[in-house]
Design goal:
This protein has 90 residues and is mainly α. The chain is built from four helices and no strands.
Length: 90
């Protein structure tokens, strides 16, 4: 049950992130990359035992830390996307 709930949370987050990308006509590889990022990240977030007192902060911090390499890579080609990526990660 825990696996299915985690997967569902990831799919919902992925769809929320990808819908605006599809509307902006972003290429399919970027959309797939973003979708699978958000499908995988909840599995990592739920297993990390950081911030016991600040549990609500853990997801944003972990997602942002995992996204930093991609944000840096994207910033080379597109100056607007890193801001949106950072906000969505948080």
């Amino acid at each position: 049950m825990h696996f299915l709930l985690t997967l569902l949370i990831g799919i919902v987050a992925g769809v929320i992130d990808v819908l605006p990308m599809i509307k902006m006509k972003v290429d399919k590889y970027s959309c797939l990359s973003a979708f699978f990022y958000y499908v995988i990240v909840p599995f990592i977030i739920f297993e990390i035992k950081w911030f016991a007192q600040l549990w609500w902060l853990k997801g944003g911090i972990v997602a942002l830390l995992i996204a930093i390499p991609v944000i840096i890579l994207v910033s080379k080609e597109d100056k607007k996307s890193p801001v949106a990526m950072t906000i969505m990660s948080l």
